[in-house]
Amino acid sequence: xTSDMIWAPLFQRLKTTTGADDxxxxxxxxxxxxxxxxxxxxxxLRDGEQPSExxxxxxxxxxxxxxxxxxRRQILSIHIPGDLxxxxxxxxxxxxxxxxxxSDCTLAFIAHKAxxxxxxxxxxxxxxxxxxxxxxxAVSREWIVNVGQRSTxxxxxxxxxxxRERLRLIGRVIDNTFEIPLTQEQFGEAxxxxxxxxxxxxxxxxxxxxxxxxxxxxxxxxEHKLQELAQFDGRYLQMSPSx
Length: 243
Prior knowledge:
CATH class of the largest domain: Mainly Beta
């Protein structure tokens, strides 16, 4: 991958959501990084580790998760190209969750020192990162509501619409078709239900002509029905600098 390809999804998102200054983005792109590839289900970071780098997803998908003592796992968030899923470790030295490759993926690792030096030199970069972490917190709040209060059909619809809107922002949605490489078990872990229940929901949504999921690709069949189920209000994603 070229350097431009690595930074492009992040810059596309930051320009839309923060009105990022081109000079700040150029300074960010000049930072040294190390590319590492991970296989599907491979751990990028483990709970308790103390990383000295932040990672940028250049290609592929990752998720955050926590596993309780009996082995059950909750997926906490899903991360797409352009995301910085452990930006908080600039200030929190110890990771408090796992970061796992959802698909084969490529990540760029940037040293904390290099990022902190840049932030001290360019306050606009710090402002961009601060806004990014606030949006990340807003997404976490919405996921709590999704798992805690919405019906299972509403949960799945909301999750799919959220991911579509985030993927659309970086140009990864074509004709309402997009990649979400979650297995049925992983959908269940994100929604707090079993894989059997997830299978039933997906089957019903396909029969009802709402959407279909095949081999990690979602195709929206009826936008109106999907929106009715999702009850989606995307303000929490802060898709524009003034939102």
